[in-house]
Each structure stands twice: as C-alpha cells, then as structure tokens.
Amino acid sequence: MSFRFIRETGFKHKFGAHVGMGGGIYNAVTNAMNVGCNSFALFLKNPKRWVSPMLSDDDASMFVELCKEHGFNPRTDVLPHGSYFINMANPDPAKAQQSLECFLDDLVRCEKLDIGHYNFHPGSSLGSDHEESLKRLAANINKAIEQTSFVKIVIENMAGHGNLVGGELEDIQKVISMIDKKERVGVCIDTCHTFAAGYDLRDEEAWTKFWDEFDAKIGFQYLSALHINDSKAPLGANRDLHQRLGWGFLGLECFRLLANDPRLEGIPLILEVPVEPKDDSAFGEDIKLLEWLVGKSKDDKEVLERSAELQKLGEKERKEQLAKFEKKKEKKPAKRAKGQATIASVVKKQKIEVKVEAEAE
C-alpha cells in the first residue's frame, strides 16, 4: 500500500496528528500512515453524542493488528480525544454522573483497543465555586480509575475562557494533588491553548520560562503528550483558534524550539491544525515541517525565510483577530497576561509586529 506522505521513523520526537476513524475505528491507523504520523489521536466514538454503539470485537482486533503491522505501540503512541460533552466538574449531580458514564465508556474502549492514554478537556465550573469544581473533577477521575485497569487519564490545559477549568497550571496541579493513584494521571499541553491563556512560547526565553513554571507547579513526570497548534488569536486572548504552524501569532520559532527540545521525545506530539474538508494534507505538510526543523538553529537562513513565507500566509487572519481582540479589550479593564506585560502592552507589541510585516511586503 502506498501513502501520500512517507513516514520517517528515525526521529526521537513522535510527531503525529488527530486523524479520522470514519468507516471503522481501525481506519485511523491507515489514515495516520497516510500523513506520515509516528503517533496519532482519534475519537473513540462520535464526540457529539452521549451514547454510541460499543466497538465490535472484530473492529478492535483489526485496530490492534494494524497498529502492530505499521509499528505503532497503542500503549504509548496513540492518544484518543474524549467526547466534547464530558464535564465532570459540573455542579449538577445528575449531569456530572452522565459525564462520568460517558467518560468511563471511553476508557473501556481504550482498554479494549489496548490504548494506554486518554486525553480529555477538564470541563467547566458553569459559574459555581471554582475550587469546588476542581474537587468534583478529581473525585470523578478517582471513580473512573477505580473502575478501569491501566489507561492513563491525560488532562488537557485550556484557553482560559469564561468558567472553563484548566486555563491555569494551578488548576491542573490541584486536581492531580487530589488523585489517589497518581501513576494513572498525566497532562497534555496544547500550544494554542497555552498561548491563549496568556503563557508566551514565542522565543527561547519565554519557552524556557513556561516549562520551568510547568515543572515547578506540575512536574515533568506528568507530561504525557502535546497538542501542536499555532494560534490565530493574540497572546492572552482566551480564544481557542487553532492555526497552521508558522501562520499564527506563535510563529515558527515556537515549533523549532519544540522540535529540538529533548524533554518532548518519546511522547505523542499531535497536530490539530485546520484541514480542508476531505483533505488532511495539512497534517502531512506540517509533520514534514516539524521534522525539517529538527537540528535547525534560530538564525538559520532557510528557517528565517520559511518563517516569513508562513507568516505571510496567515497575515490576513492575524489582522482580523487582532482587531477583534483590541475591540473586546476596549470594553473591559485591562488585566495582566500571565507572567507578561499588561494587555495594553501586548496589544501594542502585536500591532507593531503586524505593521512591520505589512511594511516588509
């Protein structure tokens, strides 16, 4: 069987993508091969339904066999994404229980497929007491762990919008502190969400600062995966708007740093960048971009040229999102971006960046 993008297996970083599983969950394996993945994510069922038919034994067996055939270890290389409806921080007991049941159903599917990790969004307080919502979330994770055997539950950080849990690293730290079996819990850092929540990642100083804070507050022993996305919206915008790598406000340097950070070797590094309907070539292209960045320095002439090309491709959307960001902040008191200057200075800096790009054309 021939694939559109050649899978390169010589890298220590396991670059991959969130691929489709339509027509049978086993199709996710060949879809991953088709875009050159060394790890992959998938949905285990329809993410917009509470209940879906259970996986058949034949489909599960075919998934396991295809993973073996193509050299994927389901225990380490596959990162399913949880259903969107799940909110185990919900203050309504009946709705929290419904979420727990959907969550458990996903975990049972993981273990039937011999998948070792499961990623999910930590949910929302829905306006209730924030600390109490963290306690509810941790209690439900503990219940899920007790009713399953081996799958590690991986908490994803969020963009800091509204009542969402997980926009602050402290939220995740507090939840982990309440988990009884800590070997069964991990963390997935999403680069777009991180930036949206106000943590800068755009240069070596900012990159180092964030990961130092992550290690101090949570600990690298819990880092289980990354979601790799640029951001259409500016720093601290609290907007979950994924973008192609190098097109957004994070820029290519963030992903060069990622591709050369030895601390990120051996874990799933999953692209969730926008793709065209019925054409996921963007995944293959961005995986190849990440692989190309391995070993490159920040002042490499080709890297600088590629960065400028990609920034031009995303310029229109960056300008649109910056204008929305400014308009929104005019209506609210300025507040500090996490660990950075005030929102006003962030806006000024990003306006200058956009202006410089326009003048350079």
Describe the structure.
With 361 residues, the chain is of the alpha/beta class. It has a single domain, classed as Divalent-metal-dependent TIM barrel enzymes (TIM Barrel, Alpha-Beta Barrel). It is 45% helix and 10% strand. It contains 12 helices and 9 strands. A 7-stranded parallel beta sheet has the order 2-1-9-6-5-4-3. Strands 7-8 form a two-stranded antiparallel ribbon. Helix 1 packs parallel to helix 2 and helix 11 crosses helix 12. The chain is globular. It starts with 13 loop residues before the first strand and ends with a helix.
Short description:
With 361 residues, the protein is an alpha/beta fold.
Number of helices: 12
In the CATH hierarchy, the third-tier topology is known as TIM Barrel
The CATH architecture designation is Alpha-Beta Barrel
Structural class: alpha/beta
> Span from first to last CA?
44 Å
Largest sheet: 7 strands, parallel
Helix content: 40-55%
Strand order of the largest sheet: 2-1-9-6-5-4-3
Number of domains: 1
Q: Can you identify the CATH superfamily?
A: Divalent-metal-dependent TIM barrel enzymes
The Rg value, from CA coordinates, equals 20 Å
Along the chain, the helix and strand elements come as EHEHHHEHEHEHHEEEHEHHH
Globally, the shape reads globular
How large a portion of the residues is in β-strands, by DSSP E? 5-15%
**Mean pLDDT, rounded to whole units?**
92
CATH class: Alpha Beta
- The low-confidence parts are 339-348, 354-361
| Strand tally | 9
